[in-house]
Design brief:
This protein is of the alpha/beta class. The chain is built from 13 helices and 12 strands. The chain has an 8-stranded mixed beta sheet with strand order 6-7-8-3-9-10-12-11, sandwiched between helices. It has a 4-stranded antiparallel beta sheet with strand order 2-1-4-5, covered by helices on one side. It binds iron/sulfur cluster.
Length: 340
């Protein structure tokens, strides 16, 4: 697990500032509320993890930021990148932003790459479009970028098609492509989910190396708490489109204070524990996002729920300088009480 070593190095100024972000989708059955009143910052050079189950709003948050919501989606609020408002900016502005100041890496590189074009063609076009480089200069830069992500024989590989690469190699190509324009912010949505454990570790090490070398801020969207523990400085836990807990990574894993975070962590196998206990699961299912009950959306699944929980939405409250939580419960969590 990462320690606080980097936190002190991070500048307090936010690179990206999200304020009161809400994302809705219009459907035949009425509106679906995917993200609700979200406030958060991404600081320069940090890795911000965002975790939660499917439907927690973690991916839709970043699709909204990048102007990539589905046609029936609508975002409100404010998103400032280096002070410039970008939420719902004109598509021309957002197109220049994506792949230039903000890079993106997705779970399956095959969906993001054109199978009919060589890797070299796809990579050089990024530099020709965003930086106005000549083909020859762009190729030289692409060879450097592939070499930086530890792809050998890069000049030859530029002539190859995506299907000629393994899954791990394709993800390296995606990372190299995303970093060609030296973006300030790299958004990685489940970047290692499709990869086996060994390749996953290599990709995480590569992201960490590139972050340290270039100072790129990284948003790591994942359902995998093990991935977050390896790379993140801070973690945002999302549930039903809401931020329920945010903390530095060591605090979140060692001194979490939200029942949902407790449930997520207790459902992850730990190699450092000899307990022969069965892994816990969170009972029930995430709520229907078309409904907006007045109280805490986790209440039907929560072992700590009290009558107030179904009536009033818990506000997000600071428990410490870097620790936020939205929960009415004031006592010790069960896993704290037994020292788990
Ligand atoms: Fe559980 Fe109530 Fe806290 Fe929600 S507010 S997580 S229902 S204790």
């Amino acid at each position: 697990m990462r320690s606080t070593r980097r936190t002190a190095e991070l500048t307090a100024a936010a690179l990206l500032e999200i304020r009161a972000l809400s994302v809705q989708f219009s459907t035949g059955d009425g509106p679906v509320y995917a993200v609700n009143d979200l406030d958060l910052q991404v600081r320069r050079g940090e890795v911000l993890g965002m975790v939660g189950e499917s439907g927690s709003g973690k991916s839709q948050t970043w699709l909204a930021v990048l102007g990539l919501l589905a046609k029936n989606g609508h975002a409100e609020g404010s998103v400032r990148l280096d002070g410039e408002e970008i939420l719902n900016a004109p598509s021309r502005t957002l197109t220049r932003l994506r792949g230039n100041r903000v890079g993106m890496i997705f779970q399956d590189p095959m969906t993001a790459m054109n199978p009919f074009l060589t890797v070299g063609r796809q990579m050089t076009e990024v530099l020709q479009w965003h930086r106005g480089l000549s083909r020859r200069a762009a190729e030289a830069r692409c060879i450097e970028a592939l070499t930086a992500v530890h792809i050998t024989d890069a000049a030859r590989r530029l002539q190859m098609y995506p299907h000629e690469f393994s899954g791990g190699m394709r993800q390296r190509v995606m990372i190299a492509t995303a970093l060609l324009t030296e973006p300030q912010l790299l958004i990685c949505d489940e970047p290692t989910t499709a990869l086996d454990v060994t390749v996953q570790a290599q990709i995480l090490a590569l992201l960490d190396e590139l972050r340290q070398r270039h100072g790129t801020a990284i948003v790591l969207i994942t359902h995998d708490l093990g991935v977050v523990a390896q790379l993140a400085d801070r973690v945002v836990v999302m549930y039903a489109g809401r931020q329920v807990e945010t903390a530095e990574v060591h605090t979140l894993y060692g001194a979490y204070r939200h029942p949902y975070t407790e449930g997520l962590l207790r459902s992850v196998p730990r190699l450092d524990e000899a307990r022969a206990e069965r892994l816990a699961t969170i009972p029930g299912r995430p709520p229907d996002l078309a409904q907006r009950p007045p109280g805490c959306p986790f209440a039907p699944r929560c072992a700590y729920a009290a009558p107030i929980c179904a009536q009033q939405m818990p506000p997000l409250v600071a428990l410490g300088p870097e620790h936020l939580r939205a929960c009415h419960y004031g006592g010790a969590l069960k896993s704290e009480a037994r020292g788990a």
